[in-house]
Amino acid sequence: MSKRVFVTGIGIVSAIGNNVVETIDSLKASKTGIINTSDFISSPRSIPVAAVKLNNLDLISLLKLNEQSKMYSRTALLGMLAAKEALNYIKRSYSKQPRTGLVSATTVGGMNFSEQFYNGLLADDTYKEYIETFDCGDVAERIADFLAIKDYVATISTACSSSANAIMLGARLIKNNKLDRALVGGTDALTKFTISGFNSLEILDNEPCKPFDANRKGLTIGEGAAYLLLESEEIVNKENIICELKGYANANDAFHPTASSPEGFGAYLAMKQTLDKGNIEPNAIDYINAHGTGTDINDISEGRAIEKLFLPKIPPISSTKAFTGHTLGASGAIEAVLSALAIKHRMIYPNLHFNQQIKELSFAPVTKLLTNVNIKNVLSNSFGFGGNNTSLLFSLQ
Amino acid sequence: MGAFITSSACISPQNTINTSVFPSELVQYSTNQLHCIEPNYRDYINPLQLRRMSKVLKMGLGAAMMCQKQNNSLNPDAILVGTALGCSDDLEKFLFSVTNNKEQSLSPTTFIQSTHNMVAAQIAVVLKNHNYNMTYCHRGFSFEEALIDAMMLIKEGQANTILLGGVDEMTPNNYKFFNYLDYWKKEPISNLQLLNFNNAGTIAGEGACFFNISAKNDANNSYINDVSIFYKPQNINEIEEHISLFLKNNNINKDSLNLVLLGLNGDFNLDANYHQLMQHYFSKNTSFAYYKHLCGEYATSSSFALWLANCILQNKHVPEVIKINKTENNKIDNILIYNHYLNNNHSLMLISKK
Fold first, then answer.
1. Domain limits of chain A?
2. Are A282 and A268 contacting, i.e. CB atoms less than 8 angstroms apart?
3. What CATH architecture does domain A5-395 belong to?
4. pLDDT confidence of residue A1
5. Considering CB atoms only, which of A132, A150, A197 is closest to B94?
6. Which of B112, B134, B231 has the CB atom closest to A250's CB atom?
7. What's the pLDDT tens digit per position in A115-170?
């Protein structure tokens, strides 16, 4: 039974790049992916969003799909692109065929099709081919079939912590000897549904989001997908290791369906238990990739939870959501890939759009790209509706 | 390493509320859609909260709270829910507002409650439970994946008692859409004659079945030996291989199975696998039973099957109305459940009680 789990492949698509290489370039150039558009909102105004710079036809052609491919939801297409990159990140050979599973996360599933065809379907069955693309499970099955993964196929949907939970489950399936390797991550496309939803909660910033800034007004919705290939100690080729997934934990705030508790108790528990699992002390953390959505409540409660766990020495912190937007069910995996890249490329990303420290907090985030940093341990936070809080610990092998 | 079922609760289209005994009278339906018989939720849920809740939330939270009551309200170390379609009703309502350009009338409550993990989240809020909280939304794997996770948590020593369940609601729109896809029978039939028609389609169902499971050994409780899923098997041989491996891993011979509970749903295409297995794989003396005439077909119906299996083992009695064949076999110490959803999501569960 594998005691350790390693990351040996990564794949990512988001507003800052269609693959790992483009993503690194944007991060190094401190270039945000957020733009203004009126495409996703019915009132005649534009709002900032972080859209992937590929339309569905681009994705279909990149993936070399056949004519049936119009039945792939945007969420599935984005997922397929990132999952394929992660699986084929390097050439691997095994002495015997490894048991391979997929754990995929999404919150919207095929919502882009639901939005287009739901009303029509209430009238007649003209668009019935799209019905089976609406649910969350469709996305994982499309990815699994595309990559011929059969040994385990799972979908997790726990709002904005979904893909962090998918990563955790993949690691546990390996440690419980159910799989030798797991492709884990998540995908979510931009939809009117989610944008209108967050708008109805009045937590969308009308400017690009400003995580941890005193004048933050809310989040910016993004889209994207990211997957990581996890391998067991038994099958891994040491040369392929990007980093180790050393700790993980999920805890519940049990406070309110959407708002986090003021002191961030669930967030504190998730981080604390993750460090305990990884058997490291808070002062061994070299970088925190925060959940940092830019909403009033999240940033202060996450900040307080971080203070409670890390004071007197707060490690360098940034939220990368001012680069990618908040990609909802994909955000945990996108930030996990960025955490892995931080270790691999020895860099800490700036928290873009930051001006003024939150007065209730004792720390400010990193605002300039830091390079040649000695990074051994990165903590990545993902918190979702329903008080669902997950932290992951990635470590230099 | 398995887990013991310390309590269970089931909201289904049958009279299963507050009982662990199989209902003496079955509810007959004459349309192809079976609806849950719901309890007075005020007995289980704060009336102020209840007012805003959709049916699936009420069913899920209601069944979870019933299950808690029977388990002396012991706060669980983890909460896990499997739900293929999640909070469909709120999702449909919010989607309707969005697509009909009614941005002004968007209800934030509806949006919040459309989130797939709301059942598990509400349970955590009510129980003030800060522990591991997970929601699986993968079609016919949703409940099984929650159960596999739960069994791993116990094996890892992360949890001693776990509250988990499967819940899905069949909204009128989903019933309609699945009808377009020919999921349901063309002519209305009685649920009690589900297997009497040699044609396509099944009947729609829904339900909420919750369980407390525990690592603590108690001979009075049924024991979940193991659960396994397999995806899109190519042919019957592959299905047989999975079943054989599963039984081998659990040190049980197929001839020693006291009852095989199958997911037959009356669709002659989808039932072909089950008939093949009954005729050619399992031994002649095996007792077979089915359950979807009681709860209808839905993606998390295997949670109803587990509730039923527990009920059978607890009472050491197989109800006549679920039997497929008559055998001399009177011993009922173990049950194998085999179900598949649309021939894509296949699952096995082995439950026993000495």
1. 5-395
2. no
3. 3-Layer(aba) Sandwich (3.40)
4. 59
5. A197
6. B134
7. 999 999 999 999 999 999 999 999 999 999 999 999 999 999 999 999 999 999 99
CA distance A197 to chain B (A): 6
Residues B239, B179 share a domain: no
Using CB atoms, which residue from A122, A173, A258 is nearest to B173? Answer: A122
CA distance A333 to A352: 20
Among candidate residues B292, B306, B262, the one with its CA nearest the CA of residue B191: B292
Beta strand A377-384 with B223-231: parallel, antiparallel or unpaired? unpaired
Task: For tokens 């018989």, name the residue.
Answer: B37
Q: Is A212 exposed, middle or buried (0-12, 13-18, 19+ CB in 10 A)?
A: buried
The predicted-structure confidence for B271-286, as pLDDT tens digits, reads as follows 999 999 999 999 989 9
Shared-domain flag, residues B125 and B251 = no
Instruction: Reduce the secondary structure of B159-225 to three states and give it as a string.
Output: CCEEEEEEEECCCHHHHHHHHHCCCECCCCCCHHHHHHCCECCECECCEEEEEEEECCCCCCCCEEE
On average, the pLDDT of chain B sits at 96
A32 Cβ contact list (under 8 Å, min separation 6): A15, A16, A50, A208, A322, A323, A352, A353
What is d(CA A50, CA A16) in angstroms, rounded to the nearest whole number?
A: 8
B113 and B24 in a common domain: yes
| Residues of A belonging to the active site | 160, 291, 326
Rounded CA separation B297/B140 (Å)? 10
For residue B238, the distance in angstroms to the closest alpha carbon of chain A comes to 12
Which of B113, B128, B136 is most worth mutating to test chain A (most A CB atoms within 10 A of its CB)?
Answer: B136
Taking the C-alpha atoms of residue A333 and residue A323, their distance in angstroms, rounded to an integer, is: 15
Instruction: Report the pLDDT averaged over residues B282-303.
Output: 97
Residue B23's CB is within 10 A of a number of other CB atoms, namely: 17
Same domain, B156 and B280: no
Q: What is the pLDDT of residue A256?
A: 83
Instruction: Give the pLDDT band of residue B149 (cuts 50, 70, 90).
Output: very high
Name the domain boundary from B184, B214, B244.
Answer: B214
Model confidence pLDDT, tens digit, residues A175-207: 999 999 999 999 999 999 999 999 999 999 999
Instruction: Put residue B277 in one of left, alpha, beta given phi > 0 → left and psi -120 to 50 → alpha.
Output: alpha
Please tell me whether residues B190 and B244 are part of one structural domain.
no
Residue of A nearest to B126 (CA): A254
Residues B310, B196 share a domain? no
**Domain range enclosing B187:** 3-214
Question: Does the structure show a pLDDT above 60 at B66?
Answer: yes
Looking at the structure, do residues B261 and B173 belong to the same domain, yes or no?
no
CA A135 to chain centre: 20
- Cβ within 8 Å of residue A173, ≥6 positions away: A101, A103, A152, A179, A182, B152
Please tell me the predicted confidence (pLDDT) of residue A43: 60
pLDDT on residue A120: 95
Specify the CATH number for the domain of residue B317: 3.40.47.10
Count of structural domains, chain B = 2
pLDDT > 90? residue B103: no
Distances (CA, A) of B166 to A38, A187, A337, B187: 40, 24, 32, 29
CA A206 – CA B66 distance, rounded (Å): 45
Rounded-to-integer distance, Cα A283 and Cα A301, Å: 21
Q: What is the pLDDT of residues B183-233, one digit of tens each?
A: 999 999 999 999 999 999 999 999 999 999 999 989 999 999 999 999 999
Q: Is there a contact between B134 and A250 (Cβ–Cβ < 8 Å)?
A: yes
Termini Cα distance of chain A = 19
Q: Is residue B169 within 8 Å of residue A120, measured between CB atoms?
A: no
A250-263 b/e (C-beta count within 10 Å ≥ 16 → b): bbbbbbebbbbbeb
Contact A197 B106 (CB under 8 A): yes
Which two three-digit tokens encode residue A74?
A: 């945007």
**One domain, residues B306 and B197:** no
